[in-house]
Amino acid sequence: MSSSSSSHSISPTPLLKDELDIVIPTIRNLDFLEMWRPFFQHYHLIIVQDGDPSKVIKVPEGFDYELYNRNDINKILGPKASCISFKDSACRCFGYMVSKKKYIYTIDDDCFVAKDPSGKDINALEQHIKNLLCPSTPTFFNTLYDPYREGADFVRGYPFSLRMGAPTAVSHGLWLNIPDYDAPTQLVKPRERNQRYVDAVMTIPKGTLFPMCGMNLAFDRELIGPAMYFGLMGDGQPIGRYDDMWAGWCTKVICDHLGLGVKTGLPYIWHSKASDPFVNLRKEYKGIFWQEQLIPFFQAAKLPKACTTVQECYIELSKQVRAELAEVDPYFTKLADAMVTWIEAWDELNPSTTTTA
Ligand SMILES: O=c1ccn([C@@H]2O[C@H](COP(=O)(O)OP(=O)(O)O[C@H]3O[C@@H](CO)[C@H](O)[C@H]3O)[C@@H](O)[C@H]2O)c(=O)[nH]1
Ligand SMILES: [Mn+2]
Predict the structure, then answer these.
(1) How many whole angstroms from 94 Cα to the centroid of ligand 1?
(2) What's the complex ipTM?
(3) Which of 39, 262, 282, 292 has CA atoms 20 to 30 A from the CA of 17?
């Protein structure tokens, strides 16, 4: 592991400066950070270097960071490193596990600062922090979107008994330019760019799943961290590009059970690089069929009242995966095992935290 830091010019203390880590999975040099410097430079970065550990990843001067490559992961986790994917952005979840902070923001290295309709640079991190620090409304939909936002409120007919809302566990941001499409959609619409800036943040209603993208994502690690396992993807696995989807389905079922909120919408980032749709099709291929069985599984998943911590919920979910998804493919038995290993590793690295809502 390597690290670096340097003195910073005096500036107003950014929100949650010492309570949030920025996790970046990467196989490239991190020049993209130059554009984020005004927004990121006061935060600690956790860089998870995927692929060849002997490759040197250049981190621009002036950032406070720790960097873990595959050798570090193997050294820290020993045999439990088997649950951390190799050659897939799913490796980023190792950063969630080693962090000691309450909040996590994760971003891909081909995501840049976007501009809002007025032409102003969007501080995505600041918006995610606002989303996380404000309650969510999972049990009753507010038609004027985020009621806690300046200039908005609960609309007529919204029960006062519900206006306290629920603690927010996840803030899911979106992307201008290259949208996060699956390979078939990318193939039929290679030139499609997302130019639509929708000025809204919404709570995803309780009982509704959603396709969580890991490109521009923040969460409360103390509320939901152990559920953010990005699965077994990439090298040696029959599937890729379903890492964030798997984590999102597990997370949403557990958030619903524990009474936590998940928001989507602002902030936007500018996603600059379309990955190769043919490569993506190979990675996603089985997932496109499997998800037709996975979604009904997660929609029907019930967690016992006795499950009051994220770890207990996650272990229970792993048992249901093992029991009900093995018939889809033997991969899910392996994944159920890896889910247990993930929790064991999480608890080993975070002995004091049993995550309860
Ligand atoms: O083997 C790898 C490949 C990439 N990374 C790092 O992961 C992110 C995302 O990579 P990239 O932008 O090249 O790929 P996308 O298809 O745009 O990624 C989207 O699909 C999701 C699939 O999981 C992903 O979360 C989305 O963002 C970059 O930071 C790469 O450097 C890697 O670590 N290992
Ligand atoms: Mn990308």
Answers:
(1) 15
(2) 0.96
(3) 262
